[in-house]
Design brief:
CATH topology of the largest domain: Penicillin V Acylase, Chain A
Strand content: 15-25%
Oligomer: single chain
Number of domains: 3
Radius of gyration: 23 Å
Number of helices: 18
CATH class of the largest domain: Alpha Beta
CATH superfamily of the largest domain: Penicillin V Acylase, Chain A
CATH architecture of the largest domain: 4-Layer Sandwich
Number of strands: 20
Largest sheet: 10 strands, mixed
Length: 585
């Protein structure tokens, strides 16, 4: 039996407070809790010094290594090592030119404090926007490439669930948010609660990780505004010349006291990629959804005495959001390149709004956290779940009181213990009860998901197909009725050319079935391929015909038609563990 994997252990284990001038660091509930104060450079330096031992195992170094691993798997031969430097020279440098001075100073301080090369840290900070730009260009050309491989393999999610006024037990606004991102092996173990007190601007708290020094992704400021960012992945809209995403949100948190202020700041910026800012004001019980691309932005408000908006609300005083544009014009820029992603995205959006409506009048921090912890369809733990294998951060804000509950532990963090912190007192708010969402999940189911997460890390981070297969064997034994677990086991076995195991696993997935007919079609396609490699062409033809007889995503049907006529080439395809599928079969 495999020893369960954990994230990179953080050496700073003591709860004793360590100080650096006005800044300090302590460990609470497995989290790094840090106070930063001063100029942009000084706050970056404080972050670097206080978390020096942790940053190398955090997400910033991970992202570059992750990209280079994907390049190595892209069959580019001797060109592979040239892709990253070329991307940085052509795109990253231009992205960096738009970095605000305060952000560049912060990054420089972080690098010097942590003893790292500025160029390496800066490259890590500009890489996400660089990759978004390049991936969009490749989508315009319809040309596959390593950037598209990288982007599609992220499987980004993110879910917001907000209740206020009549929908809330105490009338106060509660803003829950899952942060679904790559870095499963490093983000949770280096997760940080960062209290920022800049010389210029307001105090705010950001929930991030060691080395993520700009607080513009998940944050709340002393004026009572919350901010969460959602990415729109599958669109060909991007442009160089805007402010990188984390820096823009950081500026909003420092400067905006009202949603009007925030909207003005956001509207004055041209983004590099496609994003939505979901923001709330705890003073007025208002919500702003600001959707943007490089060519268009739009925003709408909810709450504050406004009537319900039928496009955005299923119940009064509630709002749920995933990663689908609500604006019709922006929605037309999104491309359905990957069916499993879109079904998952739509399901999270639908579920968040349904759960908000069902609990209207009774919502509090724990009830909205329960939405973040949703395990999806009862017949599949993966395909519609809000609590994903990539859920590396989960929070609930109550901005009227300056409180934030933070999910702890391994991914999915929304299914672990939430602990409260107080922005006003810059402390662990022990008098506000911590809680764990309990929805009756069995111990076997929980352990099966842990083995699935281990397989994800082994496959994505370490390229260790053999141990990943062993982890999925255990997951299937613990949760024998989970079809996608068996499907992943089959794909891994096929990669290992363990054809008998692969056929058995795929046969089991087919026998269990799936709530999405498209997934059932994919199960048949892949069993046909296994049987082709086993020299059983007649059996493969039977599976190809079964696939073609079911509704399927266009690439699956195209592959089945081609291989029904000409046979299977045997070319391996990259497995997307976050959705339990293959992006381009």
């Amino acid at each position: 039996m495999l020893t369960p994997l954990t994230t990179t252990p953080a050496p700073l284990l003591s709860s004793a407070r360590r100080t650096l001038g006005p800044a300090w660091h302590e460990r609470r509930d497995g989290l790094h809790v840090v106070k930063l104060k001063g100029s942009a450079y000084e706050m970056g330096r404080q972050h670097g010094v206080l978390l020096r031992d942790v940053i190398p195992g955090g997400p910033i170094p991970y992202y570059r290594a992750y990209f280079e691993k994907l390049i190595g798997r892209a069959a580019l031969g001797p060109l592979g090592p040239l892709v990253w430097p070329t991307l940085q020279a052509l795109v990253g440098t231009r992205v960096g030119r738009q970095m605000p001075r305060f952000a560049e100073d912060t990054i420089r301080g972080l690098a010097e404090g942590a003893g790292l090369r500025f160029e390496d840290v800066y490259g890590g900070c500009t890489m996400p926007d660089s990759m978004i730009w390049l991936a969009a260009r490749l989508q315009q050309l319809r040309a596959p490439g390593p950037a598209v491989v990288h982007r599609l393999s992220l499987g980004l999610g993110c879910t917001s669930a907000i209740a206020w006024g009549e929908a809330s037990r105490d009338g106060k606004l509660h803003h829950a948010r899952n942060f679904d991102y790559h870095g499963v092996s490093c983000w949770p173990g280096t997760q940080a609660v960062l209290f920022h007190e800049p010389d210029e601007g307001q105090r705010y708290v950001s929930i991030a990780a060691a080395g993520v020094v700009l607080g513009g992704i998940t944050a709340m400021n002393e004026a009572g505004l919350t901010l969460t960012v959602h990415q729109h992945m599958f669109t060909d809209q991007s442009a160089l010349g805007g402010t990188p995403i984390g820096a823009m949100g950081d500026e909003v948190m420092r400067k905006a006291e009202t949603l009007d202020d925030a909207e003005k700041l956001l509207a004055g910026n041209r983004p590099i990629g496609c994003w939505t800012y979901v923001m709330t004001d705890g003073k007025t019980n208002e919500v702003m959804c600001f959707e943007e691309s490089p060519r268009r932005h739009t925003s709408f408000r909810l709450g504050g005495g406004r009537p319900m908006d039928p496009r955005a609300q299923k119940a009064k005083d509630t709002f749920g959001y995933a990663n689908v544009y609500l604006d019709e014009q922006l929605g037309r820029t999104e491309t359905n390149l990957y069916g499993s992603y879109w079904r998952h995205n739509a399901a999270r959006h639908r579920t968040a709004n349904e759960r908000l409506a069902e609990g209207a009048g009774r919502h509090d921090a724990e009830s909205v956290a329960r939405i973040l912890a949703d395990r999806g369809h009862e017949a599949c733990r993966v395909s519609e779940a809000s609590a994903m294998v990539m859920t590396v951060g989960s929070v609930v804000f109550r901005p009227e009181d300056g409180l934030v509950w933070v999910g702890t532990g391994e991914a999915p963090t929304s299914r672990n213990r939430f602990v409260a912190f107080d922005l006003r007192g810059e402390r662990r708010a022990g008098e506000h009860a911590s809680f764990v969402v309990d929805d009756g999940e069995s111990d076997a189911s929980r352990r099966a998901f842990e083995r699935y997460r281990d397989a994800y890390v082994l496959h994505v981070d370490h390229g260790d197909a053999e141990r990943a297969l062993a982890a999925m064997n255990e997951a299937c034994a613990l949760a024998p009725e989970e079809p996608v677990f068996h499907f992943l086991r089959g794909l891994l076995a096929l990669d290992r050319r363990a054809h008998t195991t692969a056929e058995d696993a795929l046969t089991r997935a087919i026998a269990i079935g799936h709530p999405h007919a498209e997934r059932r079609a994919s199960f048949h396609l892949w069993r046909a391929r296994v049987r082709s490699e086993m020299g059983r062409r007649d059996d493969a033809i039977t599976d190809y015909r079964a696939c073609l007889g079911l509704p399927a995503d266009p690439p699956v049907h195209a592959a089945a038609r081609r291989e029904h006529a000409k046979g299977w080439s045997g070319k391996r395809r990259a497995i997307d563990f976050s959705m339990g599928d293959v992006v381009s079969p």
